Amino acid sequence: MMDFIRDYGLILILFILPVIFVIQPLFLPMIAKKNIQVDVTSLKRKKLLIYRQIKELEMEFDIGNINEQDFSSGRADLKREVSEVIAQLNSL
User: Fold this and answer.
1) How many Å apart are CA 36 and CA 15, to the nearest integer?
2) Separation CA 1–CA 6 (nearest Å)
3) Interatomic CA distance for residues 83 and 56, integer angstroms
4) What is the pLDDT of residues 10-22, one digit of tens each?
5) Nearest CA to 91 among 28, 39, 51, 48?
6) Are 85 and 44 in contact (CB under 8 A)?
7) Helices (DSSP H) in 1-92: which residue ranges?
8) How many Å apart are CA 9 and CA 2, to the nearest integer?
9) Residue 34 pLDDT
């Protein structure tokens, strides 16, 4: 029984593991493509959330809850952030 286990263990080490090592690069493009798709969806969602934040900031300013200086700086920060997200989306 021990000889049986040892023989199949050697087969596993000497044959199957090198085959897996050689075949592995064939599957890497599929894995990388899946990660890019996840990044694109998360970036699109982030862009949408920032646009909503800009809209809420404009509503708060129109209502009079925030002053013009806070509105200007907050809007500039959000616009800079959304432009960075758009640049990341364009680079993918």
Assistant:
1) 33
2) 9
3) 18
4) 777 788 878 888 8
5) 39
6) no
7) 2-11, 17-63, 68-91
8) 10
9) 65
Provide the sign of the torsion angle of the four alpha carbons 66, 71, 73, 75, taken in this order: positive
Per the domain annotation, does 17 fall within a domain? no
Contact 67, 91 (CB under 8 A): no
Q: Is residue 46 part of a domain?
A: yes
* Maximum Cα interatomic distance, the chain, rounded to a whole number of Å: 83
Tokens in use for 27?
Answer: 């599957």
Which residues form the domain of 50?
A: 28-91
User: What was the pLDDT predicted at 33?
Assistant: 66
Query: What's the whole-model pTM score?
Result: 0.61
For the chain, the domain total comes to 1
Render pLDDT for 75-90 as a digit per residue (tens, 0 to 9): 999 999 999 999 988 9
